[in-house]
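1st attempt posting a full record on here, be nice pls
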Amino acid sequence: MNIARVDLNLLVYLDVLLREQNVTRAAEQLGITQPAMSNGLRRLRDLFNDPILVRSSSGMKPTERALDVQPKVRQILAETQFLLEPKQDFKPLTSKRVFRIMASDYAEATLFPKLIKHIRSEAPHIILDVLTPSDVSYQDMEQGRVDMAINRFNEIPQSFHQTTVWTDTFSCLVNKNNPDAKNFGLKTYLEAQHVWVSKTGMGVGFGINPEKSGGLGWIDQALSRIGQKRKISVFTRHYQMPGLLVQNNDLIATLPTKVAVMQADNSNSNLEVKEPPFYIPEFELKMAWSPMLHHNPAHQWLRRLIGYTAGKLR
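the predicted structure (as tokens):
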């Protein structure tokens, strides 16, 4: 195929169609009529010799071929946009840019206090808008409405850039007056009452079913592998809570080590950190962003600053 004969605007059509999976909404996104978008879809089908979108019981769905080319199309469009943008230098000291970052509660509790301190020092006029996972979709990130996400991801779109911020382990946080603190082992751990804390991924969360321990995360999956199950009394999504809750001397919180150490340090030595009496795999905190922002000088500056801050906290 001679590329000179191909209308490259069709790649823009394809990108929007695959995001929206709806001809009418795709037309609205591009500011064109629905017949024009339908005609674009017909031309895309001829170009790729593939239906691109097919009807299903739940609406239009992309074909396997469309899903295969989607990240490549996103990359091409992002590189093209960067090529056509005027070259701009980023000056942190005078910039008034707003950065919107989706961050898990864990990331906000551990990384952001130091990050904001560094931002205030280097770029005092910058505004940081920190969003929760339930505020943001991958589509928001794809389109550049959100600068980045910092979270523990099970999966992420192939087109996104990502890097590991740090790796963390798990620890147990207990009150020093807890009777189990002096003889802390698997038996006392399993007999105790526990605080569950987690909120990862993206999208609106749902209530927990205590009976389905396999869906409760890394800790309960690790227990399940040795044929055990803990007794959970409190479910919370906020990492600021465990340090308060385990002031009750009959509760144990198992949570990322960075959070456990911070809360023990902030509790006037009333709490202490214990190593879990069973193996829990470590996990990675990652930073992910759209290819549309990969070459943006301001975005590059922020990524470098996050990496520097994380390095100090390791």
